[in-house]
């Protein structure tokens, strides 16, 4: 099996949820350095400590980055030096269906892609969702972001080749994102999501992290989208 030995992996959004799962999986796959970045300094520090507590061989670093700030994203990308893989999982739940959603989930990854330096074999993986596959009422901007990210990955795959660019579409994944949904609504929402997919449960961050690791390790896949969604489109 391919590992991430001697690889530098950057996870923007690594302070919680899917991104934290990716950062941990990269360390478990022997990445030599894992850099996590997100906007809240306390959450970054907490996540670095939780990752280090696993006592895996790789080095863990944390950076504070507000992905809404285009200049900061550019500066961050340039400051990284040569890296191998980037997973972008940052998303701001407060902004889910505002036009701001594009700042953190679309423009941020694009600016990073245009300014980062990748070593041969490098890759970028974006995070969309399944709202463009199965739209929900009132979530029109999020549906647009999901489609846009697929186009962005394809366009950048051509522009940055042979650096590989792909996108993952998560279904319902058990992360801190749920903490922001009011408890009263949460139960009903969860039940509905579980019912409307083939695999009748919410997914785990470590399950979807496998898909990010696959896209980092498999050197022959680019411009693709993988949905990790319990079969939502077929239910
Ligand atoms: N979980 C799901 O069911 C699901 C389903 C479909 C799509 N998604 C998408 O997958 C992505 C990850 O979701 P998740 O479930 O892992 O959510 P999460 O646990 O809330 O993680 C979101 C991450 O984004 C970071 N973030 C938020 N605002 C930011 C900003 N302005 N700049 C930089 N980082 C920022 C957060 O860190 P800070 O607070 O420290 O900034 C955190 O690390 C999101 O785009 C989400 O929309 C999730």
UniProtKB/TrEMBL annotation:
Keyword Flavoprotein, does the record have it? Answer: no
The molecular function GO annotations come to: oxidoreductase activity
Domain of life (superkingdom): Eukaryota
| CDD domains assigned to the protein according to its UniProt record, in alphabetical order | SDR_c
Arranged from A to Z, the UniProt key words for this protein are: NADP, Oxidoreductase
Recorded hits in SUPFAM superfamilies, A to Z, give: NAD(P)-binding Rossmann-fold domains (SSF51735)
Cross-referenced Pfam families, in alphabetical order?
Answer: SDR (PF23441)
Alphabetical list of Gene3D superfamilies matching this protein: NAD(P)-binding Rossmann-like Domain
Q: Which family does it belong to?
A: Belongs to the short-chain dehydrogenases/reductases (SDR) family.
This protein is called Uncharacterized protein
Q: List the source organism.
A: Hypholoma sublateritium (strain FD-334 SS-4)
Q: What is the lineage of its organism?
A: Eukaryota, Fungi, Dikarya, Basidiomycota, Agaricomycotina
């Amino acid at each position: 099996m391919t590992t991430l030995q001697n690889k530098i992996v950057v996870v923007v959004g690594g302070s919680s949820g899917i991104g934290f799962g990716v950062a941990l999986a990269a360390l478990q796959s022997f990445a030599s350095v894992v850099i996590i970045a997100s906007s809240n300094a306390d959450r970054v520090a907490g996540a670095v400590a939780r990752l280090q507590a696993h006592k895996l061989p790789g080095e863990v670093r944390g950076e504070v980055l507000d992905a809404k700030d285009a200049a900061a994203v550019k500066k961050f990308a340039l400051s990284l030096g040569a890296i191998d893989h980037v997973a972008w999982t940052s998303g701001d739940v407060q902004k889910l269906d505002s036009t701001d959603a594009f700042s953190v989930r679309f423009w941020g990854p694009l600016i990073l892609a245009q300014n980062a330096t990748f070593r041969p074999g490098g890759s970028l993986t974006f995070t969309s969702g399944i709202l463009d596959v199965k739209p929900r009422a009132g979530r029109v901007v999020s549906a647009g972001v999901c489609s846009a990210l697929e186009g962005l990955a394809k366009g950048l795959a051509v522009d940055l080749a042979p650096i590989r660019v792909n996108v993952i579409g998560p279904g319902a994944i058990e992360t801190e994102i749920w903490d922001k949904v009011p408890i009263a609504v949460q139960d009903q929402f969860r039940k509905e999501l579980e019912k409307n997919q083939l695999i009748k449960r919410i997914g785990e961050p470590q399950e979807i992290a496998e898909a990010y690791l696959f896209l980092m390790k498999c050197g022959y896949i680019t411009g693709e989208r993988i949905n990790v969604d319990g079969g939502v489109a077929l239910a």
